[in-house]
Write a structure and sequence with these properties.
416 residues, alpha+beta
Length: 416
């Protein structure tokens, strides 16, 4: 009996436990399933519009001289005087006397030549008189004296006249040469120049083979700019009169974040490519290079970055460089705030922007921020409440594009 009672109690406890467990399971709180919200990414966008902008061709190069000569004397002698600015870095103007060679020998030679000229003039006058007398006597004889043509010319003293005339002509030439030699004792500057190098000095005996100084024209310098061969099509070349070349801006790094900028223009293209990089080379002319800009003159041999302003292209979109993805693609935020991936055609690339001529439409919202895993159709949210937009005028200002009125100011905005 006791064993049966224990079994019954055990079964009863187990039954109650199962009944309680079933009760708890049926009365448990229910969790309603809800659809997961779609994933979204917070991004920054830029609304773009077509505009007209000038093409900018950027290159680098070295400042070189536009005119450079070595000065040689044309006569032999001792230098007795020199220009006070005939020193490296000195300025000389066109027509100023650089050096004077001792002129005394050439003055004496001129006096001798003048004396010889007077003697030749006298001999010519005497012979002219004799020739006149001979012609009168020959006319009186008439046909009484038969003579050959050679005899007649000799009787009329024509050979004597020709010899006297030749002597006179030679004396005139000797005087002119003596005058020229005397003038050449003073060597003048052929153009406004700066002295790059001086070799001879006062007291030195020089010959026509002796170097005196090296002069560099100071009215203009050239910047020899290397650019890709494909960029030549964007440059406007000067006409036959040398006018109309594309404007340019030249920057020289002064260190410590300072730069010196100057305006210039394209004057010509060199006939060969750069040997090392196979780049085309154009010459940009800078006027008054030695006048200080930002307190510093433009010096020969300086490394310069040059930006040439090309023709205006129309109906293009200016897009920040960081908004261009791999494969020339952009991310767009469509009207439903979804991500769209669009392939575009880029006509020009700059360090900060690109020009897109195909693949974008008016008012497209270009995503400028990064997305870790971009998937077409994914939802986007604006990181800024009012996305910025750029009209044509704003695009020009933000990207350094310029109109016809002020290339220099815009060039300073887009300097390196």
């Amino acid at each position: 009996m006791k064993a049966a009672a224990r079994v019954g109690i055990t079964i009863g406890v187990l039954g109650l436990s199962v009944a309680w467990a079933v009760y708890l399971w049926w009365t448990r709180p229910r969790v309603r399933e809800r659809p997961a919200p779609p994933l979204s990414e917070r991004v920054m966008v830029l609304s773009v519009y077509p505009t007209s902008v000038p093409v900018r061709v950027r290159g680098s190069g070295v400042v070189i001289s536009s005119r450079e000569i070595w000065v040689y004397p044309e006569v032999t002698g001792r230098i007795v005087q020199r220009h006070r600015n005939l020193e490296p870095g000195g300025w000389v103007s066109k027509g100023e006397v650089l050096i004077t060679v001792d002129p005394r020998n050439y003055q004496a030679a001129l006096q001798q030549a003048l004396a010889a000229l007077e003697k030749a003039r006298f001999e010519l006058a005497v012979e002219a008189g004799r020739k006149t007398v001979a012609q009168e006597e020959w006319s009186q004889l008439g046909d009484q004296v038969p003579a050959s043509e050679a005899g007649r010319r000799l009787a009329l003293r024509e050979p004597h006249w020709q010899a006297a005339l030749a002597a006179f002509t030679g004396a005139v030439a000797a005087v002119e040469k003596a005058q020229w030699d005397l003038e050449r004792t003073q060597i003048t500057a052929p153009f406004d120049a700066v002295v790059a190098e001086k070799v001879a000095d006062e007291g030195q005996v020089v010959t026509p083979q002796t170097r005196i100084a090296r002069l560099v024209a100071r009215d203009r310098f050239w910047v020899q700019v290397s650019i890709p061969l494909s960029d030549l099509a964007w440059i406007r070349w000067p006409d036959a009169a040398g006018e109309g070349g594309s404007p340019a801006c030249v920057w020289v790094d002064l260190g410590q974040g300072r730069q010196s900028s100057r305006e210039g223009r394209v004057v010509r293209i060199l006939p060969d490519l750069e040997p090392a990089g196979r780049m085309a080379r154009v010459l940009v002319e800078v006027s008054d290079p030695l006048q200080p800009a930002e307190g510093v003159p433009l010096v020969l041999g300086a490394y310069a970055v040059t930006e040439i302003l090309g023709p205006v292209v129309t109906n293009v979109f200016v897009v920040p460089r960081e908004a261009i993805r791999e494969g020339d693609q952009v991310w767009l935020m469509d009207a439903h705030d979804s991500l769209q991936i669009q392939t575009v055609q880029i006509s020009r690339r700059y360090p900060d922007t690109v020009l897109v001529d195909r693949g974008l439409s008016v008012g497209d919202r270009v995503v400028t921020s990064r997305i870790a895993l971009p998937v077409p159709g994914m939802k986007l949210r604006l990181l800024q409440p009012n996305p910025p937009s750029q009209g044509p005028g704003e695009l020009e200002a933000s990207n350094g594009n310029v109109g016809a009125s002020s290339h220099a100011a815009a060039s300073r905005r887009v300097g390196p």
